[in-house]
Amino acid sequence: MTDTPSTEEVAGVEVGESRISIPGFTEEGENLAAEMNTAAEHSHGGLGESGELTAGAGSRANRHTGFDLAGFPEPTGTEEEWRFTPLKKLSAALSDEPTDSADGEPVAYQVSEGVEGLEVSTLADGQAPRGTVLQPADRAAAVAYRHVDEALHLKVAQGVELSEPVRIDITGTRAGARVNSHIVLEAEPNARAVFVIEHRGSAAFNGNVETKVADGASVSVISLQRWDDDAVHLGQHDAEVGKDASYKHISVSLGGEVVRLNTNFRYAAEGAEAEMYGLYFADSGQHIEHRTFVDHNAPRNTSNVLYKGALQGETARTVWVGDVLIRKEAEGTDSYEKNQNLVLTDGARADSVPNLEIETGLIEGAGHASSTGRFDENHLFYLMARGIPEKQARQLVVRGFLNEIVQKIAVESIEDSLTEALEAELEISGH
């Protein structure tokens, strides 16, 4: 690894915008989670508010996963996995209940039709590839898996390159109505596809998405959370990336009273490239929470994680928890994760927790960074000195801050729509 300067030291690891360098790090590596469990207010390191280890704390390699709901008791809020989350608002989504269909289906699905090279079907429990990629990592995911008899399955045939994005539009029709959902996306070898999953309307939605990316394939998954103000959305999105394949997941969360997404990926072989990007804008009364996990379980793969958010309103709340685990067998890994938050008004709160575990010293590079702050007054001064009114100058700063993620989408119609939505958010706040 390159010995580069950085800006902050956490538990003996230099952390900042640059790659990390670990003095005395050997080829055998070491598990940084143990150190982070005894220090590091910056990373929390698996500690709850009490300062004692809680269930599920420590190394991500030791976190419980499985399909048996008994392994995921009702959370109390003291668990590391749930300590940031407003559990009182999630009782409908966490209860062991089927989809509420008493007054008709509470959610409508619309999937792109007539796409050559795309097969649309359903998968029962135990019918591969369902359950081969995603294993529930919390109670919400286990409940959703348990109560979906037939998962929606979209498969792109080998060598097919889809010219247009495949859309899955999910619209909640009843506020508070319980919905369980499971979607399986599959790209066969050397296929190329973009999947867009857009959530609108209102419901208590609990949804899993698992994506299998075969060797040489290229897949982008764009998940848009544009719910009404009273919606609740819990979800787990998992992917497995094959040899020499590429995978990109982009999450955009603008609507909903509570949105909590776990986004994870691992590798099936070497030579793959995987990316996760996120954009969120929280208003007063909203809780938006993103958790990411990159499992480097195979050698010579790369990963990049970048999440950006803006907050406005006295009770606006965002959470980002990012975990990267570089296992002993993952030699030649190159990995980086970063979270940035822009606080626009007093009272808004952003929690940002990057975690990094390295079990081998034979890597190309690894690092993480996190920042939360207000406007850069230098940027404002520069714009206002050139005759731009303060309100417009502030809008330009926010727009420029978030636009880096918008451009990663690479679907013009979605980029335009999100730009309009962000402009509306800024107008509401007066910034």
UniProtKB/TrEMBL annotation:
Q: What is this protein called?
A: Fe-S cluster assembly protein SufD
InterPro entries for this protein? Fe-S_cluster_assembly_SufBD (IPR055346), SUF_FeS_clus_asmbl_SufBD_core (IPR000825), SUF_FeS_clus_asmbl_SufBD_sf (IPR037284), SUF_FeS_clus_asmbl_SufD (IPR011542)
Give the family this protein belongs to, as stated in its UniProt record: Belongs to the iron-sulfur cluster assembly SufBD family.
* Residue stretches in coiled coil: none
What organism does the UniProt record list as the source?
Nesterenkonia aerolata
Enumerate the residue ranges of region (Disordered). 37-60
Q: What is a single Pfam family found in this protein's UniProt entry?
A: SUFBD_core
Q: Which domain of life is it from?
A: Bacteria
TM segments? none
* Domain SUF system FeS cluster assembly SufBD core intervals: 175-401
